[in-house]
Amino acid sequence: MRQEVVVLEAGLLTTVQDLGRPGHAAWGVSASGAADPLSLRAGNLLVGNPEGAGALELTLQGGALRFDDEALVAVTGSDLSPTIESGAARRPLALWAAEPVAAGTVVRFGTTRSGARSYLCVRGGIDLPPVLGSVSTHLLTGLGGFEGRALRSGDRLPIGLDPGAPARRMRIGADEIRKVPFRKLLRVTPGPQEGWFTSASLARFVETEYEVSEEANRMGLRLLGPALDRSREDPMLTEGVCLGDVQVPESGRPIVLFAEQQTTGGYPKIACVVCADLPALGQLRPRDRIRFEWTTLESARALLREQERLLANALESI
Fold this sequence. Notes:
The protein is globular. It is of the alpha+beta class. 44% of the residues are buried. Strands 13-20-17-18-15-14-21 form a seven-stranded mixed β-barrel. It has a six-stranded antiparallel beta sheet with strand order 7-6-9-4-1-11, with no helix packed on it. The chain has a five-stranded antiparallel beta sheet with strand order 2-3-10-5-8. It has two domains: 4-169, no CATH class; 181-314, Cyclophilin-like (Cyclophilin), CATH 2.40.100. It has helices at residues 37-46, 175-179, 199-207, 278-281, 297-314; strands at 4-9, 14-17, 55-59, 64-67, 71-79, 83-86, 89-92, 98-101, 105-108, 114-122, 156-158, 168-170, 185-190, 210-212, 220-224, 239-240, 245-247, 255-257, 264-265, 269-273, 289-294, 315-317.
């Protein structure tokens, strides 16, 4: 009989995610996937899974999940004060570490202390039928995941077979990689319509501290702050967009396209968040304050290479 995770309490927003389904934008399907892919990858590697295995993404306020069989789990990303409950005993569950849980154990999450999203990875992964090569949940279209929706109390999620690879642990002094998703200074490269904005707006964009609005969701992060003025007002033809693009609608207030972004858009794009800072987008909460910093494509590639080096060096086999 296959092992399962039983959802006792779903929390504010809990979904099944992996690293997404890239390559289908031409058909109007964005990649979706984990909002903070670095934390998901690290959690999977800690329990010995392939880094893109299906896991649970919990947002802002967690829930409770019961394991009816022994399992090995890891919680990464934001601190939702996870605990392990077995009978009357209750203890904290360590973050960024592989933790064995006994049969009948409940893993419970509270309200976030840092960041927006926490990832619960279990050895074997959440094993659901893939859609276009991925088990990630795309909420806006009802694609993938568990019935294409956020989890509810009573849902039962199958766990995959043991991957056979050893579990891992964080090396001593590996704190640097754990800090990556919580950056508040986001590096950006110039967008394709950078020239549509006044020089004053380009300067204001990186000099201003923006606040994430309450309207933020997995499709986009609306920012509050001074409006950005254009140097040209003629309409723009709709074109392809991608994760991390910073669009500026008629209001002049930026929108950062996020995990479930549309695949085309008709607003000029002033900038694009570099790949190394996409995990930080996934940990932003409403009312968080951020700033942008210009960088080059060459530097953006170097930042990503350095991040991959940090992740590889942060883990060792148990």
